[in-house]
């Protein structure tokens, strides 16, 4: 008996299809239904104002390391003017990567000289709020301002000499940048 190649392939395919349709190996799965889920407990939802977050040990100044002779972070004068001795700033003097400290929490902030909006692009890395929202920065005279995505000022800082800036966030938290 002589079979052609195409005939042999056709007979093989027909046998495979017929055996696949008649298998019973999946029939036991058709009868199984998953167990019904238990409903989530129902309760009453209330809304309350949360207190502002506090940094661990924020009430104990001894928990924060300081340089010899430096017992506190410089803050902005109440009228928003530059502190005595603050240096005039240029974009080149601010560009780079900074170690930021916000209310005792540390992170890094990149301040490249890439034009963005009315200033330059900024990139926070693992920063706490509100500094995690920095999108841009700019200098004007003695002041370094960090902005959010809408152009709102998140923080204002002044040079404290050398490679250090001190200031406050828009909600009054102490902030410093060092290299």
From TrEMBL:
Superkingdom of source: Bacteria
Any one of the GO CC terms: cell outer membrane
Region feature Disordered, mapped onto this chain: 24-85
Residues spanning the membrane: none
Pfam families tied to this protein: Inh
Gene3D superfamilies, A to Z: 2.40.128.10
Main localisation: membrane
Subcellular location as annotated: Cell outer membrane
Signal peptide: 1-20
GO molecular function terms attached to this record: endopeptidase inhibitor activity
PROSITE patterns in alphabetical order: PROKAR_LIPOPROTEIN (PS51257)
Topology versus the membrane: Lipid-anchor
Positions with biased composition (Low complexity): 32-44, 74-85
Residue intervals of the Alkaline proteinase inhibitor/ Outer membrane lipoprotein Omp19 domain: 89-179
Keywords noted in UniProt: Cell outer membrane, Lipoprotein, Membrane, Palmitate, Signal
Family: Belongs to the rhizobiaceae omp19 lipoprotein family.
This protein's name: Alkaline proteinase inhibitor/ Outer membrane lipoprotein Omp19 domain-containing protein
């Amino acid at each position: 008996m002589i079979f052609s190649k195409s005939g042999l392939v056709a007979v093989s395919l027909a046998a495979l299809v017929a055996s696949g349709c008649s298998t019973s190996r999946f029939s036991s799965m058709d009868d199984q239904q998953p167990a019904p889920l238990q409903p989530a407990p129902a309760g009453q939802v209330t809304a309350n104002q949360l207190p502002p977050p506090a940094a661990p040990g924020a009430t104990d100044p001894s928990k924060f390391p300081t340089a010899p002779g430096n017992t506190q972070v410089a803050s902005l004068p109440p009228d928003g003017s530059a502190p005595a001795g603050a240096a005039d700033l240029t974009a080149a003097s601010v560009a780079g990567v900074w170690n930021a400290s916000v209310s005792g929490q540390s992170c890094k902030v990149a301040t490249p000289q890439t034009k963005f909006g009315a200033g330059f692009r900024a990139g926070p890395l693992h920063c706490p709020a509100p500094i995690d929202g920095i999108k841009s920065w700019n200098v004007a005279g003695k002041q370094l301002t960090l902005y959010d995505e809408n152009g709102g000022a998140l923080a204002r800082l002044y040079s404290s000499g050398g490679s250090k800036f001190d200031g406050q966030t828009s909600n009054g938290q102490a902030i410093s940048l060092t290299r």
